[in-house]
Amino acid sequence: MNAVSDDAPLLHDLMPWSVRPLRVGRSWPTAPDPACLRARWAVLTSAPDDTVRAALLHPTRARGLYTPVAQLPGHRTPTTALAREDGPCPEPVRIQHGPHDQLWLIPDHRLIDVARPELWRVADEQQLFVIEQAPPQDSHEAVVTFSALLPDGRSPAGKPGWIRPLFRRPGGRDPNLAPGLTRWLSALMTTEVDAADVLAWIAVVARPGPRGCAVPLPREPGQWQEGLALGRRSLWLHTRGSRCADPAEGRDTDRLRLPGGSRPYVRAPLPTAPQAGELSYDPQERTLRIGPGRIAPVAPEAWELTAGGVRVLETWYRRRTATGEPGSLESLRPAAWSRVTTSELLELISTLTLLARLRGEVRDFAARVAAAKGGAAFGAGALRAAGILPVASERRRPASVLEHHEEGPDGQFALL
Fold first, then answer.
1. Which of 3, 19, 134, 391 is the most buried (most CB within 10 A)?
2. Rounded to whole angstroms, how far apart are CA atoms 73 and 169?
3. The Cα angle at residue 271 between residues 269 and 274, in degrees rounded to 5
4. β-strand 310-311 against 306-307: which pairing, if any?
5. Phi, psi (degrees; rounded to nearest 5) at 219
6. CA distance 260 to 325
7. What is the dihedral of CA 42, 43, 45, 49, to 10 degrees?
8. C-alpha angle with apex 397: 395 to 403, nearest 5 degrees?
9. Which long-range contacts (CB under 8 A, 24 or more apart) does 181-189 make?
10. What is the C-alpha separation between 138 and 58, in angstroms, rounded?
11. pLDDT digits (tens, 9 = 90+) for 95-139
């Protein structure tokens, strides 16, 4: 590795505001299906007394039946004590669970030990979240993943990372970038550079380093444009088509499809109630098996793709076939494997296949960037010389969001 690569700035400095992952504190407020969340809520709120209700809740030091908390930003949920709650279930919301799964969550602050309200305030249709991870050594896993949904930041390996929103304020305002970075890059690359461009570049060159996630900088406009093309495709795949869509470049909105002949289909009906341990893969036939059911073709690279050292497809399936302790809210599961679940599985297989294929191109490009010869003008030293680094301490804290009115405990107005 040359001296220039060693001087690569850290993601910690390029995107200075970061937030630790959410901590729900109990598993039952999240599920693959929103209907079972409503059923769980109904059982909780119809409990005959505090003893039964507390046993269902799973109290912690942070949350109990009488813990006073404010509303989650953007969600008009009650703030009365859970012991007195008898209303309908708050409408479940879709969140990003880990790098590649999507679950439903009851957005009620009374149920979540550490909800990170600062993230909820900036989660909207313009936001993009970076999740910085610590991949296992000697793995090909990416050090950063991306989400358009609010991410919980969890890892199958149990090593929480950092969540970095692209924007510090709602509506795509106030980029979470070192001040002056886009202007400096615009001058170097002789083209207008915006926050989304910087994120696309990060998507293809970010790498783990001894001081944290490092982001080598571009050296010339041609390299920059090549990186942007790969990065936009990576962001499009990570967000399931909801960001960086461009049909002219083959990135359709909300539609990820493999080329004809390689798209996965259900070849034999899946069981209506799959059990844990029934998932397997036949590499010779390129077939995913769930009991007697078969899905094919499934590329080996999709089956082998891991997050936190664990196969993504195995983790996804385990989460949908797990059974909770009898009598617990976790034991309330969907009665049957639905067509929606099958569609989500097919979409996940397609996404993993496309990501795995792109990963090789990204690795090759990142290696060329790291090995490129050039002066230190493109390292962190140049950012310091330009006054971009070090970043002021206030940029590492959330911005004030004065337009948000949030209800505090027991209906009191919360001042931000």
1. 391
2. 13
3. 145
4. antiparallel
5. -110, -20
6. 44
7. 160
8. 100
9. 181/14, 181/383, 181/388, 184/383, 184/386, 184/388, 185/217, 185/218, 185/224, 188/218, 188/378, 189/218, 189/221, 189/224
10. 38
11. 999 999 999 999 999 999 999 999 999 999 999 999 998 887 777
Say how far apart CA 74 and CA 107 lie, in whole Å: 10
Q: Write the single-letter amino acid at 340.
A: V
pLDDT mean across residues, the chain: 92
Residue 308 class from Cβ within 10 Å (0-12 exposed, 13-18 middle, 19+ buried)? buried
Quick one: DSSP state of residue 328? S
Q: What is the percent of the chain where pLDDT is above 70? A: 93
Q: Which residues contact 3 (CB under 8 A, 6 or more apart)?
A: 376
Q: At what angle do helices 339-371 and 221-238 cross, to 10 degrees?
A: 160
Give start and end residues of each alpha helix (H) in 7-122.
11-14, 34-45, 50-57, 117-122
Nearest to 100 by CA among 300, 237, 231: 237
| Residue 135, token pair as written in the block | 């991949």
DSSP-derived letter for residue 251 is B
Band of the pLDDT at 4, cuts 50, 70, 90? Answer: very low
* Residue 29 and residue 105 in contact, taking contact as beta carbons nearer than 8 Å: yes
| Number of residues in the chain | 416
Residues with Cβ within 8 Å of 405's Cβ and at least 6 positions away in sequence, in order, are: 413, 414
Contact in structure between 5 and 378 (CB atoms under 8 Å): no
CB 287 within 8 A of CB 298: yes
- Both tokens of 108, joined, read 């009620």
Say if residues 288 and 296 touch (Cβ distance below 8 Å): yes
d(CA 400, CA 381): 31
Fill in the amino acid letter for 217.
L
Q: Which pair of tokens denotes residue 265?
A: 């289909």
CA distance 285 to 174: 50
Retrieve residue 396's tokens.
């590492």
